[in-house]
Amino acid sequence: MDTISRLNENLSKLDAVRKTSMDFLASLVDDKSFVETGTFASGAAYADGVEAQGEGIVTGYATIFGIPVYLFVQNFEAMKGSFSVMQAKKIESVLKASVKNGVPFVSVIDSAGARLDEGTSVLEGYAGIIKLAASMKGVVPHIAVVTGACAGLMSDYANMADVLIVGKKGYVSQGAPSVVLAKEKKSCSPVELLGADNALSSGMAALTFESTDELKNRIADVLTFLTGARTDGDNPNKTAKTASDVKSAFAAVADKGSVIELYKGYSLSTATFFARVGGNPVGVLCAEGLLCCDDFKKIKRFVNLLDSYGIPLITLVDSEGINNSYDCETHGLSRIASEAFTAMALSDNPKISVIVKNSVGGAYALLSSKGIGFDYTLAFSDACVAPLSGEQAVNFYDEDISGDPVKCKGKLIKDYTFAEGNPFLSAKEGYIDNVIDGREIKPYVASALNMLL
Description:
Elements: H1 3-17, H2 19-28, E1 35-37, E2 57-64, E3 67-74, H3 85-101, E4 105-111, H4 120-136, E5 142-151, H5 153-159, E6 163-167, E7 171-173, H6 177-183, H7 190-194, H8 196-201, E8 207-209, H9 212-226, H10 246-253, E9 260-262, E10 270-277, E11 280-288, H11 293-308, E12 313-319, H12 326-329, H13 333-346, E13 351-360, H14 361-367, E14 376-380, E15 384-386, H15 390-397, H16 405-420, H17 423-428, E16 434-436, H18 441-452
Helix pairs in contact: 3-4, 4-5, 11-13, 15-16
């Protein structure tokens, strides 16, 4: 047999067991941009006599909307994409190339777990790629995509990525799904219980997707932000018709069509976004209400992500402080909050805070203060900046309210807010750089952002 015939025969064997994954890859990356690496790498035959052609994985490099990436796509058709020593070597090879060349990495995961007949060696393989994933943080952007199964230690690897995206047919499970479902006496499929909705609500997934086209756009959008690429933006001097709360303030400051929400539905009082202001990529953290444990976890993750790639942080604040309820306190509120404060205190990226309504107590210290590291702080003219909110202060000091309690309490709250929470008092002490009409939020933020960058 001549060499060309031998090549074609081996390629035919590979193509026979990876058609679905190759079709997926072709739709994910730019046309004719994919170059495969480790094409014929394969382990020995296994106990059942099956040779793992291609090792249940495709590795290489390509472009996505012109953005160069290294990537792997696990192939569930080959032994359920099971993780092996040789698969680990193929992954390690492209991970190292990604770091060496400063090119973003995309992991596409669809694996039911490890090949147990490889024993301890397969555990060493997992540990090796997990260590490499950890070393990539802040060096090159890493996006993990779950298209199907993501079980066992592969779920730990996936959660070490900068951004985890889970498909509607995917699920993430630390343990074997059958065992998890049996313990809970559930008869549903892993996707129903442990799928994209659970990954999003639990704070694991930053984003979800339904189609490959949607995924391709999401990957490109995220990489564009993480690499700091600037685009043409809206007029930075544009004033808003209204900006009276966090939602309208965010709409006023963000360039139209630039917003991507991360970790949607996780935590009660915070929302996190990638957006642009005058074409500059920023991370926006909106806080409305009392901060609880999940809020602090979300803040920590978001702040660390932005800091890793030098992306500016903008906070839009309307929070009366920390939710020190019994439930929060018994879940380790102080420890969890301290981790968010640590992340904010150690971050070096530019930080701008806009106090929209309330920035009270711990919320002010974490999300607005000069002491924690904010470079520029604005407050709307009717904002309240104080150790306690008006209602908290009235309840704390237990004022004697006679006559109409509701009317008297309302007056006391109003008096306290004006006397103690007036933003001009904080501005007088140098803690707030400017007190503004909310409609002018974009010109002020855009100007400050340009100076900080």
